[in-house]
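Task card 7
Instruction: Convert sequence to structure tokens.
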Amino acid sequence: MKASAAPSTPETTSHLLWEDMSVFRRRYQKSANALVAVRNVLQERRPLEGAEDEFLSLYERLESADPRYVYEVWTDPTAYYWVRLAYQLLHTTLTGAPLNSLGQAYCREIGAATSAAALPVHLHSFKRYALGLAFLDGRELALASPLEVSLPFAIPGTELSLDGSGRIRVNGLLDGELSLWREGAGALHLPVTGGESEHVRLRANPVAVLDRYRLSLRHQAFNNLPGLVFVEPVLQHGEQSLGDSDALLCDALRLMREHAPDTFSQFSEVIRYIALKPLGSGDYTNISHSDLPGTFIASRVENPYELADTFIHELHHNRLFTLEETGPFFLAETTDPLRDALFYSPWRDDPRPLHGIYHAVYVFIPVCRYWFAVARAATKSSRITEYALSQVQRITAQLIAGVYQIERHADLTTYGERLFASMRDAVEELRAQVGSVGLTFESLILHCGEDGSFRGAFAPGTDHALTVKQETLRHVQDHAPVAQRAGILVKLRSL
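Output:
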């Protein structure tokens, strides 16, 4: 690595990395500032020759509303996605600057040849936030032109969604009813408290409640987000993944509160809602996205301990995305850290970009701490204790390999190195703790299946159960590029 750590104390870096909640508030403020900037430029420049008028009118409604309700709507995860796209499309329309990959994907999906063609379509979708605000503050809303959406559709800032299939037009909130229109059905009116017709249903989503925290399950919120291709599995399977979710999610939240209380405190403040999908659907297990802060998609596993692991993991992806708003982690002098999938990752079978490995090192540190706490809380030997100890050893070994990969291959910025140095210290602490309790990475490895049960890992074609160290070394042998393999093996064989 070429950069040296920025002047700072370990205490201040550790606080920034793991505890500082102001980073989230700054991101929301940045989002609000971007919305103001979009409004000001549209009002002053009028680049759409009147097509921006309805957006400007709805913005005034937002500006005059109770700040409590505005906060609820504007901290909906989709609001950050919306304003980021609006800012980019407007900038490109006025300057001719190239669109980033998300902007390009958005234009392709809506069939717009240029950002100037895409911008009025995107401004049209701002009506969803005006609708959410109307549900919260009780003021009537008559849209000058209807909001056209595909079903299902989540109403931002609320726990309500419109379920069904096909497309529908939302005309507003009038006389305590949601006014809709659907091809073949005509005008539809549903009470704002919930109701259904033959074609569409307005309902509250399932919610897991613990203390004063409400975690809503909202697969519908991932619809109507053009350009985000990873949402398909949850849109296709989200409804069938609900099952009896409330108890499972509450148990996972309780376990996080018990074994990772500081993380639970952050989770309950930051994560607005999530979606579940079957474990085997899509090409990923769980995912957070930098443009959707405050949410994630998780694969449903019938084990609350494992689900709590996922919650901790995805919260910290959210957190690191937020920290990245301060500045980049990589200099990218020799490789593109976001796109060049060239490097062995101990968590994946396929080569990964350095950015993905950096994220993985970060998020697995608190996950490993959680499993340590689970193991220490046990009053007697049990299967969950065995699994927790297996996870501690396995993740620690993976972290050692991940740290080595960043040290060996990454060109970090001063900011990126400052955070990484603290992460590296945390990994060394975990390694020391493994030794202090007499673990040697020789425990039999266990995996958790979709049904929540635990199973061992075996050498291919044999009934020989693998230890943590054996499986970790086997993974390197099978999946690391040849040029990277020897150094990683030397590092892991010393365990």
